[in-house]
Request: fold
Amino acid sequence: MGKYTGPVCKLCRREGDKLFLKGERCYGPKCSFEKRGYAPGQHGRNKQGRSERESDYARQLRAKQKARRVYGVFERQFRRYFGIARRTTGMTGLVLLQTLELRLDSIVYRLGFAVDRAQARQLVNHGHIRVNGKRADIASMILRPGDVVTVKESARQNTYFKELLDVVDKRSYPSWVERDGKALMGRVLRVPDRSEIDGNLNEQLIVEYYSR
Reply:
């Protein structure tokens, strides 16, 4: 599976919103979006304030692209998630976002074991994470309520996880998961409600985009 290796701050500028793709840097004064909040490219500055002129298709496309970039998935995979959501009982847009939130890399990030989803994917891909006591090295694995996520015992000797023990309890986590910071363990309690998912994402526009 490929991955995006370009400058992630450019993605935030393209979407006109902070996507928090670089962890703690996004909260500080060094955030590129704070310095240059306009779209990248030669004509980026000239496009400021033109959102009201966008076509319906452009708004739908931007909503879909923003969600893809927040969760770090490519188009083919994102389209597959939408297909699953459309076949599932419930509101298609909400089910889509809930499915993305329940990815293993997203759960690792939500538990505070990583500063962003990119780092969470790396931890998973390197085999540092266990799900229900078994090795889990596929970041796109979809978890269910009751699943337990832990850090592999031997990996806890790594410098990263030793330092994580000192900071993990300072990181917030949503109410639909529970965490034991000292044990580096977490559990999925339930499927997240819409109010517990990024409010800047517009799932209705995503549904409209794929329903054209």
Summary: The radius of gyration is 18 Å.
